[in-house]
């Protein structure tokens, strides 16, 4: 049983601007601290065997310039790799539009590790989606990353799970629901979305975790 409230509060969330390869971008940023050293966290985020124990089965040519595919999830290309501090990849579902994910690790003050994950998309694409449909899809993306970083925390603490089945558990769905509410506040601050619109957006994000 996880402490859902503490796990939600362990993550800093913000919406901002981050350049992508095609120009201006919009990004979701997550930051949290792990009770493990940088080398261990880097290994957990790059070794296929360990990735399969908290994120999903990964296949491909896992080197700079190579490609990867996470089973039943996204795939992409490895564009930067500066061990053990920085990993940047393209990220797309089913051959759709490429977005960009950057993972940054830094040593914390107590031998721990500060992890930042930033997921960026072209600004014009994100802004148009928000205009047409509201920020609900963005909230769902953020909540999905929250769930992944929770899985990493459990893995680093020696709690074994099967990502394919655990993510559908009532506990994971409850966590995802709370994460969507946490992203609602960050997105409202970034876009000045009305209370009614953000409530509908959170409900849309929550719906994705209930499936």
Task: Compose a concise summary of this entry.
This protein has 211 residues and is an alpha+beta fold. The protein has helices at 4-9, 38-46, 48-51, 123-133, 136-156, 163-166, 170-191, 195-210, and strands at residues 12-17, 25-34, 58-60, 67-70, 75-82, 86-91, 99-107, 113-122. The protein has one domain: Alpha-D-Glucose-1,6-Bisphosphate, Chain A, domain 4 (2-Layer Sandwich), CATH 3.30.530.
Can you tell me about this structure?
- Belongs to the AHA1 family.
- InterPro entries: ASHA1/2-like_C (IPR013538), START-like_dom_sf (IPR023393).
- Residues 35-125 form the Activator of Hsp90 ATPase homologue 1/2-like C-terminal domain.
- This is SRPBCC family protein.
- With 211 residues, the protein is of the alpha+beta class.
- It has one domain (4-210): Alpha-D-Glucose-1,6-Bisphosphate, Chain A, domain 4, CATH 3.30.530.
- The protein has helices at 4-9, 38-46, 48-51, 123-133, 136-156, 163-166, 170-191, 195-210, and strands at 12-17, 25-34, 58-60, 67-70, 75-82, 86-91, 99-107, 113-122.
- Strands 1-2-8-7-6-5-4-3 form an eight-stranded antiparallel sheet.
- A hairpin with a 6-residue loop joins strand 3 and strand 4.
- Helix 5 (136-156) crosses helix 7, helix 5 (136-156) packs across helix 8 (195-210) and helix 7 (170-191) runs antiparallel to helix 8 (195-210).
- It is globular, with a radius of gyration of 16 Å.
């Amino acid at each position: 049983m996880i402490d859902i409230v503490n796990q939600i509060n362990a993550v800093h969330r913000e919406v901002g601007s981050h350049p992508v390869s095609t120009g201006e971008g919009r990004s979701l940023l997550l930051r949290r601290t792990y009770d493990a050293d940088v080398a261990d966290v880097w290994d957990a985020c790059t070794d296929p065997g360990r990735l399969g124990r908290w994120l999903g089965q990964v296949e491909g040519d896992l080197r700079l310039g190579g490609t990867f595919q996470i089973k039943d999830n996204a795939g992409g290309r490895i564009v930067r790799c500066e061990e053990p501090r920085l990993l940047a990849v393209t990220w797309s579902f089913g051959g759709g539009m490429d977005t960009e994910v950057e993972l940054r690790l830094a040593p914390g003050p107590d031998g721990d590790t500060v992890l930042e994950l930033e997921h960026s998309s072209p600004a014009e694409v994100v802004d148009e989606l928000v205009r047409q449909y509201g920020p609900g899809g963005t909230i769902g993306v953020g909540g999905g990353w929250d769930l992944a970083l929770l899985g990493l925390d459990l893995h680093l603490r020696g709690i074994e799970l099967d990502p394919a089945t655990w993510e559908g558990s009532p506990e994971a769905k409850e966590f995802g629901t709370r994460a969507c509410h946490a992203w609602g506040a960050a997105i409202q601050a970034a876009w000045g979305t009305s209370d009614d619109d953000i409530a509908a957006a959170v409900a849309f994000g929550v719906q994705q975790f209930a499936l």
